[in-house]
Specification:
By secondary structure, the chain is of the alpha/beta class. Helix content is about 45%, strand content about 15%. It contains ten helices and ten strands. The two termini are about 25 Å apart.
Length: about 260
Amino acid sequence: MNDASTVLTTFDRGVLQLTLNRPDKLNSFTPEMHLALRAGLERAHEDPEVRAVLLTGAGRGFCAGQDLGDRDPRKGGPAPDLGATLDSYYNPNLRMIRGLEKPVICAVNGVAAGAGANIALACDIVLAAKSARFIQAFSKIGLIPDAGGSWSLPRMIGEPRAKALTLLAEPLGAEQAAEWGLIWKAVDDDALMDEAMAIALKLAAGPTVGLGLTKQLIQGAATRGLDAQLDAERDAQRQAGRTADYAEGVTAFLEKRSAEFKGR
């Protein structure tokens, strides 16, 4: 484990765990933390030994969004260029999570506010402790939902709920988030990390190419018509059918044994 970082990293049995590590600030983002997260995501993209990613937070919160300590308008000076902050930090990391052709599991261990909530929702499978809360806090400081929130929320829960969550900035409990389909499930607080790691290990032992292709197909479905999606399925299935994992999966099925996938 790298303990000197604003993002702790551990690697075990194909799972790269990335832990946001500013617990005294509810893991709110600074430029340093963005870059540390990006380094972890880059490793996940580049290292074939990494077959799944588990993202979580240290301490009592997952992520409170942007650290506003260095944005104090009382200090004077020009207004900040928040668009540049998105271009330089948030958006690259969001694109890396969505573009990673491997599963990304998020264990939301406490409050997930602002961009912290939307980074969690960008992951492929999201579990949350029952005590966790999701807060689209942007309207409280005169901003719009960023880090992909204005895109993901209406697709996940519909326009009426998305508007109410963002305009009112009311906390949404983990169990309600699961009922609405915003996350996969809410679990008891003390079971969160065990269940999240079990899912991550299961996926890390799976057919990585096929899982990555499945992720990309589902993510792209909202912007394609049926004919285009059928063509995309054809192309992806052709690729998956040429993998060693497909051959192993069929062989294991015929031999009535568990498959031993290698991620190739």
